[in-house]
Structures are given as C-alpha cells and as structure tokens.
Amino acid sequence: MNPRIIAVHKDTNHNFSKNSCSQLRLLQGLGVEGDAHCGVTVKHRSRVALDPSQPNLRQVHLLHAELFDELAAQGFQLSPGVMGENITTRGIDLLALPVGTQLHLGTQAIVELTGLRNPCAQIENFQAGLLSAVLDFGPEGELIRKAGVMGIVLVTGIVSPDDTIKILLPEGEHRALERV
Predict the structure, then answer these.
(1) What is the distance between the alpha carbons of residues 137 and 80, in angstroms, rounded to a whole number?
(2) Which of 51, 109, 121, 144 has the most crowded CB, counting CB atoms within 10 A?
(3) The pTM is what?
(4) How confident is the model at residue 111, as a pLDDT?
(5) What band does 45 get if pLDDT is binned at 50, 70 and 90?
(6) Separation between Cα atoms, residue 104 and residue 32, nearest integer Å
(7) Which fold has domain 4-168?
(8) Alpha-carbon distance 84 to 8, whole Å?
(9) Domain limits, the chain
C-alpha cells in the first residue's frame, strides 16, 4: 500500500480531540496554521508550565490509522482526529521511523520527525482503558508508546486527505524515536 494521508485535523483550543477539515496549511518552523499548538516555542500546557521558552518539537502530531484497527479489535471505537492528531496516515509504520526522517506530504510540505507522542492521562479521561491500550512492552521490558509521532515543519505547504507521503530517511546511523 502506498503511504497516504487519510484525514487532517486542527483545533484553535487545547481540546483533546481535533476537528476534521478539508486541508491543513503547514507553516515552516511553526506547525499547523490555526491550531493551538502552532508556534516556535512549546505550546503543550504541561511543557509550557515547565519551561515556556523550550523549542516546539511537537508542531505536528501524526497518527497511523492502523492503530484504530488494532484498538477496534480490543473494543475501542475511535475515528480520525479523536486522539488529537493533526494528520492521520495509512500505509506507513510511523513508529518504526528514525529521528530526522523527512515526510514529504502532498506536493510541497515537509515534516521532520522529532519523537514519539507520550500518551498522558487525557487519553484515559477520553476513554477508560485507552491509556494502557496505547502502551505496550517490548521483549526486553522497554515501554512502547503507540500514540503517534511528533514533528516540525521544514517546508510550508497544504496537505489534504488522499495526499501521498514520501519517506526520506536520514543519512548516517539511525536513532530510534523517543518521547518528546
């Protein structure tokens, strides 16, 4: 399957879920135009409380629709945007990509992956049991976070459902995504 965008979302407020829309404008160095998390410095409230001057490495949240399929098998009924992602993808193993991977979205926009979304209590407040469902443990006991990836916008552009995704891996040694 060719990697593609299946839905896009934004919200001007800090709500858990985001509103679906027909397209997003990604702004270089800022994030999603019109989204509460758009900006050069961090906008996530818990991170602002710690240090409002830290760089915003969480400008764009991408989530793989395959997670919805996995969670549906466990009894959760989720749809694109409800977990707060800006871009819902299909056909790409986002979690397996290394730090620095560039995703060319549509014809112009480029997002560089910075790390994993760290699922928090908001997920559990949204649906009981969902927090543990988006966390897993690997063979050596390491915590696996499955709630999507975060990135920064390298090149401004419009992205829409059905846009293709081209993956450009970083040169040199690859470093696994960690929570940001």
Answers:
(1) 25
(2) 109
(3) 0.96
(4) 99
(5) confident
(6) 15
(7) M1 Pyruvate Kinase; Domain 3 (2.40.33)
(8) 10
(9) 4-168
pLDDT the model gives residue 1: 66
Dist CA 115 CA 4 (whole Å): 20
- The CA-atom distances, in angstroms, between 159 and each of 8, 34, 114, 123, 180 are 8, 14, 19, 26, 24
CA-CA-CA-CA torsion sign (132, 64, 145, 24)? negative
| Interval 124-144 mean pLDDT | 94
Give the least confident one: 35-39, 46-50, 76-80, 141-145: 46-50
Question: Cα(3)–Cα(56) distance, rounded to whole angstroms?
Answer: 26
Please give the Cα distance from 66 to 28 (Å, whole number). 28
Question: What average pLDDT does range 40-52 have in this prediction?
Answer: 89
Which residue type does 138 have? G
Helix (H) or strand (E) holding 152: strand 149-155
Give burial (CB, 10 Å; 0-12/13-18/19+) of 160: middle
CA of 173: how far to CAs of 98, 99, 101, 116, in Å?
9, 10, 12, 19
pLDDT digits (tens, 9 = 90+) for 9-42: 999 999 999 999 999 999 999 999 999 999 999 9
Q: Which helix (H) or strand (E) holds 115?
A: strand 109-116
Between the alpha carbon of residue 32 and those of residues 24, 101, 155, the distances in Å are 7, 19, 12
Percent of the chain with pLDDT over 70: 99
